[in-house]
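Field notebook, page 190. I keep forgetting to write these up properly, so this time I am using the form the group agreed on. The chain and the ligand, zinc ion, are recorded exactly as supplied. Prediction of the bound pose follows.
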Amino acid sequence: MVVHAKFFFNEMVRIANSCDHSYDGVFFYAVKTTGIFCRPSCKSRCPNKENITFFQTAEDAKQAGFRACKRCQPDMVNFDPKMDLINDTKAYIQENYTENLTLKRIAQNIGISPYYLGRLFKEHTSRTPRTYLENLRVRKAVHLLKNTDMSTIDICYEVGFQNASSFYHAFQKQTQYTPQQYRKDFSYDL
Ligand SMILES: [Zn+2]
């Protein structure tokens, strides 16, 4: 694709540098110095503007002599880079669930807008990031209730809930028990 207008060129450079997933499949960019081409969302190092060239299809890029990036696999039709994003989100939540995580903070770390992340996550996992986070926290709380003698309020904060009522609410919704009932009924080993 020959991009004449400077505006569009700059806009595409901006997209490539922001790793924006919403343009995957719309165009590809290649880096002259490395001989490799990528999807716009690729998280590989951002190249200099002078070294970038754009293509409309992966085939065009290949014919111009570029090789497909191993990370974003732009030549694989069925490869879904969105799944990469979902997995990154899950990994981020798993590593940081004890902290006060907001959708905004998660999205900032993943590098996309909160709105887009929320929509994409729901679409692929049928849960919102918040529900995923809550499920994870409740699972950790269950583990602590069964295997430690920590108080329920300590467990509440330990697994990242900001207050007791949201802990109770989430716990009951998922297990049908209050944390105290759960411990009483399932901790006979202690
Ligand atoms: Zn790539």
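OBSERVATIONS:
- The two ends are 68 Å apart (CA to CA).
- The chain has a mean pLDDT of 88.
FOLLOW-UP: compare against the apo run.
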